[in-house]
Design goal:
Layout (H helix, E strand, L loop, with lengths): L3 E5 L2 H8 L11 H8 L4 E8 L2 E11 L2 E9 L8 H15 L4 E7 L3 H9 L3 E6 L11 E7 L1
Parallel strand pairs: 4-5
Antiparallel strand pairs: 1-2, 2-3, 3-4, 5-7, 6-7
Length: about 150
């Protein structure tokens, strides 16, 4: 069995892994991370398998709750429990910081992420129609659960 290690990381490390996750498309660059997050509390996690970057998770405080903004796992490392390990570490960190809820949003066509959230006890709290994209598969689905 391969060893999964989760650690805090730099924005540049997140970008390098995000670029290897095809579902994300054009991933934000460092200036976009800084613009979106600003000086809010934030957490950048990197998953490594046998020392190789395999996945990442980025979250920050949004309106008093913890927002799991962006994450993914490299296709070559899927089905190893990496997404769950990243989410568990983020949950633990957010809980220890005093957050009571965690929220994320996904796109309707990303069924694996939607299922992942529901399997982890998240509830759908809101659905947004994406401007300029009338197709239901592009709707943004917001999910939340207590920590």
């Amino acid at each position: 069995m391969k060893k999964i290690q989760i650690r805090e990381a730099l924005i540049s490390e997140m970008i390098a892994v995000a670029d290897m996750v095809p579902e994300l498309g054009a991933t934000p660059r460092e200036d976009a991370y800084r613009e979106t997050i600003g000086d809010k509390p934030q957490l950048f996690l990197l998953a490594e398998v046998d020392g190789k970057p395999a996945g990442f998770k980025v979250g920050y405080e949004l309106d008093g709750f913890w927002f799991s903004w962006l994450g993914g796992v490299h296709p070559g490392f899927r089905r190893m429990g990496i997404a769950r390990a990243l989410a568990d570490r983020q949950d633990e960190w957010a809980r220890n910081q005093g957050y009571s809820h965690i929220t994320f949003k996904t796109i309707n066509r990303l069924r694996g992420m939607l299922k992942f959230g529901i399997d982890r006890g998240f509830n759908i709290i809101k659905i947004d129609k994406e401007p300029g994209k009338p197709e239901e598969v592009e709707y943004r689905i917001w999910l939340r659960r207590e920590l």
